[in-house]
Design a protein that fits this description.
binds zinc ion, Dup_hybrid_motif, 22 strands, Extracellular metalloendopeptidase, nine-stranded antiparallel beta sheet, 1 helix, SH3-like_bac-type, Glucose Permease (Domain IIA), metalloendopeptidase activity, mainly beta, SH3 type barrels
């Protein structure tokens, strides 16, 4: 978890049940900026763009720069429309009705049916199709309709240009986190819930490595209310409500148990 419970109390966000656990069946993927970790790109939106919520990305000397998957999924289109429209483009199906488009590419690095994760190079920035200069035309869609883009859950800028810095695939497959109980030791359970046997404790401030995450008993702790449980060893689970991971909800790149 990321936000501390105490700060929420101070700002009064508890009013109205704002922290009630929300578990939408088909939550949006956590989309990342579609470029490698650490790179900064200018993303432009404009109301006469087609479709309207697409983003055009540029940076200096960007022709040939790698374009990467903004979330895990399956490549379901690798298409060359020639000198019109998207030109060479890739589409990824992320499940739950969500898809992303990467257009005007110079070339392809994936094929249809391929499973991709965060940071997978899909192709390279180009100026193919109906493009007048090198850039990446990027879209997020839900059930086929373009939606306003979000990176790490944060809405992109509409309308105008904004610099986006990528944290795409910056970390490996495990989550490094810190237990934060404000003092007392945290009980470790044999499974993802308070009904499982206690198998020990971890002290406040302990650094832990999260192998995987799953849902279990809803717990209210230092970082609010969460039903996520973190597996920190074989048969060892702790409530994510007491763990600083840098993320609200599940950690990108860390698998479900
Ligand atoms: Zn465009």
């Amino acid at each position: 978890m990321r936000k501390r419970w105490i700060s929420l109390l101070v700002t009064g966000l508890l009013v109205g049940g704002a922290l009630a656990p929300a578990s939408p069946a088909l939550a949006a993927p956590t989309f990342k900026v579609p470029f490698p970790c650490g790179q900064s790109w200018s993303g432009q939106t404009r109301s006469d763009h087609s479709p309207a919520y697409a983003v055009d990305f540029n940076r200096t000397d960007d022709l040939g720069d790698p374009v990467v998957a903004s979330a895990p999924g399956t490549v379901d289109r690798v298409t060359d429309l020639g000198g019109t429209s998207y030109g060479k483009y890739v589409r990824i199906n992320h499940g739950g009705g969500y898809s992303t488009y990467y257009a005007h590419l110079n070339g392809f690095n994936v094929s249809v049916g391929q499973t991709v994760g965060y940071g997978k190079v899909l192709g390279w920035v180009g100026s193919t199709g109906g493009s007048t200069g090198p850039h990446l035309h990027y879209e997020q869609r839900l059930n086929g309709s373009d939606i306003q883009v979000r990176f790490n859950g944060t809405l992109g800028l509409y309308w105008g240009s904004k610099t986006y810095t990528s944290d795409n695939a910056c970390s490996s497959g495990t989550g490094n986190a810190t237990v934060d109980t404000s003092g007392t030791p945290l009980t470790v359970r044999s499974g993802p819930g308070t009904g499982y046997a206690s198998v020990g404790t971890v002290a406040d401030g302990t650094r832990v490595t999260i192998a995987c995450q799953t849902s279990g008993t809803t717990v209210t702790g230092t970082y609010g209310t969460s039903s996520i449980w973190d597996r920190i060893g074989s048969g060892r689970y702790i409530s994510d409500a007491y763990v600083y991971t840098g993320y609200d909800g599940y950690i990108p790149n860390v698998p479900r148990c």
